[in-house]
Design a protein that fits this description.
Layout lengths: L3 E7 L6 E7 L6 H11 L2 E5 L7 E3 L2 H15 L3 E5 L9 E3 H7 L4 E4 L10 E3 L7 E3 L2 E8 L5 E3 L7 H4 L2
Parallel strand pairs: 2-3, 7-10
Antiparallel strand pairs: 1-2, 1-5, 3-4, 5-9, 6-8, 9-10, 10-11
Length: 163
């Protein structure tokens, strides 16, 4: 089952918050995702093949964010949570292996570093690539030992986790 799930940081309005977008061929995940969104104060947008509009959910203050998430998803953007190949995006791999096995279209180094096929990336068993124009992009940064690590860490520092 091809499922693409993204998170979207929503700014503007009264309170910045998170929205979740799901593109899936069935509604199998909807109840679970809606429950998670309710528990975490997030709006949600579900899109199914052939639908003319997304199915938006959440408190009225969050539905705007869910709509923004649906539009961003249609434009091919967002922070990916689930995508085809995700199950292979773990461990220490070369950039070429991540592209070949883990559904990563492009590895982008912050700070202008050059990435080659042989560049070593320690995923730390957590990657949160971006979707940009429909492509899956993993942003990385240098780390000790000459390896690269994902820019977005699994456990964000408080100063950066809410904006």
């Amino acid at each position: 089952m091809l499922v693409i799930a993204c998170t979207h940081l929503i700014t503007g309005g009264e309170t910045p918050h998170l929205a979740v977008s799901i593109t899936a061929p069935t509604d199998e995940l909807e109840d679970h995702v809606r429950a998670w969104c309710t528990d975490h104060g997030a709006g949600s947008a579900f899109t199914h093949p052939g639908a003319t509009a997304p199915d938006l959910a959440g408190p009225s203050t969050l539905v705007r964010g869910a709509y923004v998430a649906a539009v961003e998803t249609a434009l091919g953007t967002g922070r990916l949570v689930r995508w085809p190949g995700r199950e292979h995006a773990h461990g220490v791999q070369t950039a070429a292996d991540l592209r070949a096995k883990a559904g990563i279209d492009y590895v982008e180094a912050l700070g202008g570093l050059t990435i080659t096929d042989e560049s070593i990336i320690d995923t730390r068993d957590f990657v949160r690539p971006l979707r940009r124009e429909g492509q899956v992009i993993l942003q990385v940064q240098p780390a000790a030992g000459g390896v690269l690590i994902p820019f977005e860490a699994e456990h964000q520092q408080k100063c950066c986790a809410d904006h």
